[in-house]
Specification:
The chain is α/β, with parallel strands linked by helices. It has helices at about 10-20, 40-50, 65-80, 85-110, 130-150, 165-175, 195-215, 240-245, 260-270, 290-310, 310-315, 320-345, 355-370, 380-390, 395-405, 420, 425-455, 460-485, and strands spanning about 1-5, 30-35, 55-60, 120-125, 150-155, 160, 180-190, 230-235, 250, 250-255, 270-285. The chain has a domain at about 1-160. The protein starts with a strand and ends with a helix.
Length: about 475
C-alpha cells in the first residue's frame, strides 16, 4: 500500500502525483494524508476526489494522532509511577493509537477488503507539521495493512510522481532479505526544464547525489531513506514510530528531519536499509535559487543531527558506513577553512591541483553514464560543469550555517498552493534566511580576486583593492537577487 502526505500543494502537481498511482504495479491501497483542515487545505481534498472518484472516501481527524500518542504516553507514565520500562509505554501507546484508527474506520463503514470496498482513502487533520501527518498516516497504514494482509508500505510526498515499477522494484529488495526494514529508490527531477535552477538541480541529482548515496550503500546499508521514495516492512514500524515522532536533542524537539531519523531508528534496532539505485522516482526541485538554498540547509541540519546524536550506529555497521559519514561532515568544513585561510593570508594550507578537479569531473561523468539508470538531463555534458559549481560553491557555507542553526525548525520555503505562494516574505525575513549566502558570496568573490591578482603578480596594495572589489560586487548582486528582488 502507498501513503502520500502533503500540505497546500499545487493542485496540478498534486493531481499528477496521485494519477501516477493508477498504474503502479501491485499497489492495492492508496492513503493520502493532508496536513490541514482549513478552507485552503480543502483544495487538496478536492483534487483527491477528482482523481479517485470511485471506491474512495474522505475522513476528518479531529486531533492528530501524534499528539494523542504523546498524551497517552504521559498518562501511562504517571499512572504506573515509572515502574515499567519506557519501551512498554511506547508499545501500549502505539496500540492505543491503532485502536483509535480501527474505531474511526469502523464508524465510516468503508468495507475494506470487500468487493467494491474503498481502496483510496484521504485523511485530513488540523495543521501541525509533516511529522504530524506522517504519524497519523503510518498508524492508519498499520491498521489497514493488517486488515488487508499487506506486508509493505510505500511512503511519499505530494509532489512526487512514481514510475510503474517504483513501488514493486523498491519493495522487492526489502522482501528478498528478512533483515531489511526499509529502502528507497533513486530520484530524478520531473520539473527539470522549468528554470535554470531546476536544470542545474537536475544535474546535481544525476551526478553528485547519486554518487553520494552510492558511497554509503557500498557498506551494505544506507543512512538516509529519501522521503519522496521510501518503503518499509510494516512489522518494523510500530517499534520506531513513537521515538521517531518525539525525538529531542539537548531538550529541543526535532520536527524537520523526518526521513533521516526514521532511518536512524531502523538501524538502531538492527534493521538494514537499502538504496535501490536501479529504480527511479521523479520528485520536484525548487524553481528558484533561494528555495534551493533553503532546502539544502534543511537537509543539512537533519544530516548533522543524525550523524552526531546516535554514534552507536557506526559500531553496528561496516567501517565504510562511518567513512561516508565522516567525509560528508568534515569535507565541506575543510573546504570552508581552506577558502577563508587563503582569503586572509594568500597561502594554501592544503594541497590543491586543478588536474584533480578535472579528473573528478571526468570520473563523475563516466560513473553516471555507465552506472546510473537515469540517462541524465538533456545535454548534460554542457551542464555538468555549471551543475558542479552550482552545488559545490555554496556547499561549505550551507554546511557551516546549518550546523550553527541546527535547532531552527522552520521549513525555509512556502508551499506551492495559490494561497501560500501569495505570501511573499518580508525583506528582513529573507535576509535572516539567506544573509549567510550573501556573506559567503563575498568571501568567495574576494578569494577568487586574490587568486587572480597573485597569479598576475600584482603588488600588495593592488591585491587588497582587488579583494575589496571582489567581495563587494558578488555580495551586492546576491543581496539584490535573493533578498530584494526574489
Amino acid at each position: 500500500m502507498a501513503a502520500i502526505v502533503g500540505y497546500r500543494e499545487d493542485p496540478e502537481l498534486f493531481a499528477r502525483a496521485l494519477d501516477s498511482y493508477k498504474t503502479a504495479a501491485e499497489c492495492r491501497f492508496v492513503l493520502v494524508g493532508v496536513d490541514g483542515d482549513e478552507t485552503p487545505d480543502m483544495e487538496m481534498v478536492r483534487v483527491f476526489q477528482e482523481v479517485f472518484p470511485e471506491q474512495s472516501a474522505v475522513i476528518q481527524i479531529d486531533e492528530p494522532l501524534g499528539e494523542v500518542a504523546m498524551k497517552t504516553f504521559e498518562k501511562l507514565s504517571k499512572v504506573d509511577g515509572n515502574a515499567q520500562a519506557p519501551k512498554v509505554y511506547m508499545e501500549a501507546t502505539i496500540a492505543h493509537c491503532c485502536q483509535l484508527a480501527r474505531e474511526i474506520l469502523a464508524e465510516h463503514n468503508l468495507d475494506l477488503g470487500e468487493a467494491g470496498g474503498v481502496t483510496r482513502l484521504c485523511l485530513f487533520q488540523p495543521h501541525l507539521h509533516k511529522k504530524g501527518i506522517m504519524f497519523s498516516a503510518f498508524i492508519f497504514s498499520i491498521v489497514i495493512s493488517e486488515m488487508l494482509g499487506i506486508e509493505y508500505l510505500w511512503s511519499s510526498d505530494s509532489d512526487t510522481i512514481i514510475m510503474t515499477d517504483s513501488l514493486r522494484s523498491t519493495i522487492e529488495t526489502i522482501a528478498g532479505d528478512p533483515h531489511v526494514g526499509g529502502g528507497s529508490s533513486g530520484l530524478i527531477i520531473h520539473n527539470e526544464n522549468d528554470t535554470v535552477t531546476t536544470k542545474l538541480g537536475s544535474v546535481v541529482y544525476w551526478s553528485e547525489l547519486y554518487m553520494t548515496r552510492s558511497t554509503s550503500t557500498a557498506s551494505g546499508t544506507s543512512d538516509c531513506q529519501s522521503g519522496p521514495s521510501t518503503a518499509f516492512r510494516i512489522t518494523a514500524l510500530p517499534a520506531v514510530l513513537y521515538p521517531w515522532y518525539t525525538q529531542t536533542v539537548l531538550g529541543h524537539r526535532m520536527i524537520v528531519n523526518e526521513d533521516r531519523h526514521l532511518t536512524t531508528n531502523l538501524l538502531m534496532r538492527g534493521w538494514t536499509v537499502t538504496y535501490v539505485s536501479d529504480t527511479l522516482t521523479a520528485t520536484d526541485t525548487p524553481t528558484t535559487l533561494s528555495r534551493w538554498i533553503m532546502q539544502q540547509v534543511r537537509w543539512s541540519r537533519a544530516g548533522h543531527i543524525e550523524s552526531f546524536q546516535q554514534p552507536q550506529i557506526y559500531v553496528l555497521n561496516n567501517p565504510l558506513f562511518f567513512w561516508a559519514a565522516i567525509k560528508r561532515e568534515a569535507g565541506p568544513l575543510l573546504g570552508f577553512g581552506y577558502i577563508l585561510y587563503y582569503l586572509i593570508t594568500g597561502r594554501c594550507f592544503a594541497y590543491f591541483n586543478w588536474y584533480d578537479v578535472g579528473i573528478r569531473v571526468v570520473y563523475t561523468l563516466l560513473y553516471n553514464f555507465f552506472r546510473n539508470p537515469d540517462r541524465g538531463p538533456t545535454n548534460y555534458w554542457l551542464w555538468i560543469g555549471p551543475g558542479l559549481l552550482f552545488y559545490n560553491i555554496p556547499l561549505p557555507m550551507i554546511h557551516l550555517w546549518s550546523l550553527v542553526t541546527v535547532f531552527q525548525d522552520g521549513w525555509g520555503t512556502s508551499m506551492r498552493s495559490t494561497s501560500e505562494l501569495s505570501k511573499r516574505g518580508q525583506a528582513w525575513k529573507r535576509w535572516n534566511d539567506l544573509g549567510f549566502f550573501v556573506v559567503w558570496m563575498g568571501i568567495v568573490g574576494g578569494t577568487l580576486a586574490r587568486m587572480f591578482a597573485n597569479m598576475a603578480g600584482w603588488d600588495e596594495t593592488s591585491v587588497h583593492q582587488a579583494i575589496v572589489l571582489g567581495m563587494i560586487v558578488p555580495s551586492a548582486v546576491s543581496f539584490y537577487g535573493l533578498v530584494i528582488r526574489e
